[in-house]
Amino acid sequence: MLAVRGVHTYYGNIRALGGVDLDVHPGEIVALIGANGAGKSTLMMTICGSPRARQGQIIFDGRDITGMTTHEIARLRIAQSPEGRRIFARMSVLENLQMGSVVAGVQHFDEDLERVFKLFPRLKERLNQRGGTLSGGEQQMLAIARALMARPRLLLLDEPSLGLAPLIVKQIFDAIRELNRSEGLTVFIVEQNAYHALKLAHRGYVMVNGQITLSGPSKELISREEVRAAYLEGAH
Q: Which CATH number is 1-76+153-236 given?
């Protein structure tokens, strides 16, 4: 479904990604792990068109999207829940969800609303509350729910566990697992919490200094000594 081929991304003259190759197949959960500053979020943003890849190709469902704008990419039903949540703080929960549904249209709005409420019942309780007044965990639920309102074929999740209590992290990861299991939703997740990400995913990639250094089935990566030493010891 998604193929990243030889992608180089720069911020000015500083190279952030150096020839990244990566695949996400339909119905998979794929995790990208690595230390802070490794380039994980830059890859996620590059897939969405901002910043643009300076070299290489990004293919979605057989179509080259490398030169497309962010809103053109969104219309292909690639939805992102960005790092730091970035909800509309002054808007209510309902208004945030309405913004998320713009790409999909209004015909399925009520049905999609019930779907996200089933995953995150807390949002139904906070429906008319401003996004900026929600707790960190509730804001993360809202960011993911807003992305789901676009009816994505590919859901991009950037650091969904960042700064959250373990109980909230479990709830969010359980919701992602259920979406994949029951609907076959394809998910690409970027995470610093390597243990949680690899337990959730079917396959994983390890990024170091803007390059992929390891890849394979998640169980295989969890068992590798170098991965355990660098990313897993004490994480769980």
A: 3.40.50.300
